[in-house]
Design the sequence.
């Protein structure tokens, strides 16, 4: 899967690379996802964002127009994503299930988030259900595997 990860901090690069194991073609950039930077996702299947990226309806529309099908957030919250717009453009959303990081050691958090983010990409690529990471109607009946951390 071809992916661009926005708002990447230096502390997130290594855990994401380790979790990915060169499975997905992930471009890492430090820019926030905005209407102006959405074009960096041209030719990509998915974008990876964090809570600092405000994905309002115009950004979602732009992503849909350039062919993005998936948005994975590196957070437990999706308050920064217009879910109605993403649903209307049929863009699937995934987050990090809160239970994965609730009792995690501070030093493990970036690794856990990276592992779950790559697992979300894996499951989308394999047309699998994302389980508790899915931010949708959960109407699929496919078997899913949550990250085993």
Sequence:
């Amino acid at each position: 899967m071809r992916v661009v990860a926005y708002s990447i901090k230096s502390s997130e690069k290594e855990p994401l690379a380790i979790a990915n194991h060169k499975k997905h073609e992930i471009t890492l950039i430090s820019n926030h996802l905005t209407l102006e930077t959405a074009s960096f996702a041209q030719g990509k299947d998915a974008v990876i964002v964090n809570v600092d990226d405000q994905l309002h309806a115009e950004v979602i529309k732009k992503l849909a127009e350039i062919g993005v099908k998936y948005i994975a957030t590196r957070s437990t919250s999706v308050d920064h994503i217009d879910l109605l717009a993403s649903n209307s453009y049929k863009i699937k959303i995934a987050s990090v299930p809160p239970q994965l990081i609730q009792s995690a050691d501070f030093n493990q958090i970036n690794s856990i988030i990276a592992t779950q983010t790559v697992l979300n990409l894996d499951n989308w690529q394999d047309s699998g259900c994302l389980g508790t990471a899915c931010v949708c109607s959960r109407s699929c009946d496919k078997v899913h595997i949550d990250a085993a951390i």
The CA atoms of residues 3 and 12 lie 15 Å apart. The longest strand covers residues 2-5. Residues 109-125 form the longest helix (17 residues).
